[in-house]
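EI: anyone free to look at a 283-residue chain?
SC: sure, send it
EI:
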Amino acid sequence: MLPLPFIAVLLLVLLAPLSALHAADVYPRYFDLQGNALEANEAAKTYRERPNMAVYLPAPAMSTGTALVVFPGGGYGGHDTPHHVEANASYFVPKGIAVIGVRYRVAQPGTEVTATTVTNALADAQQAVRLVRSRAAEWHLDPKRIGVLGYSAGSHLALTLTCHFDEGDANSADPILRQSCRPDFLVVLCPWPRKDQVADFHFGPLAPPTFLATAKDDKVAPSEFAIGIAESLRKAAVPVDLHLYPAGGHMAFHFDQVTEASHWPEVFLPWLASQQANIPSSK
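SC: here you go
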């Protein structure tokens, strides 16, 4: 006879709505940044030379049209995909929000992160946003609701993108390059300054609305940097929602941490809804 706890769990699974069970692809689809499909092992092995993305989509009937293009952290030497991409996919895709994790180019093992490393990553970030927007209809997304989420070095990259976006080349023969690489909103968690100062980021009035959060005890990404970035964005007349959490360090925003900051989506989602309420849907 089966134990009662096992029976209870089994009943919960069997009685769960089918829409919840099929809310997301069990496995993501992988593409290089030209839009060519890749196998998972190929994507994992070749990203340093051939940057790529993992695409997690809600079922079409559940899609809100919103996408989070995630730039994971890793100090520009790697990518913390489990915490920054896979965990976010598990959380947001059942809520109808697509998650696209970008493996941008990083420094080769044993080599120093240089300005060229960041320049290459920026080119990949721009291309990734263009690619997602070019696939909006196919992936049941709204091209006006493509946001960027960055952690640590990924936040540095997201802020750099916010200073270097364009509306695309309308005359290009490439449908991807015709797309804008401007995020419609920005989520910046535990922003790492690398070697930069706040003054090195030149935000214009067209920079996207920004949700910014940091922990006061973060020794890797000092909260003073996040506070300065928020003030710089405000001076550019960009809407900013800044959240300073008391504790948790640099990993405070990981879902597996027992911190107030690990519940950041509960604050972020109402903010996002308020921002998107004023944007007519393209769907």
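EI: The helical segments are 4-15, 18-21, 40-46, 81-92, 115-134, 153-163, 223-235, 265-276.
SC: 👍
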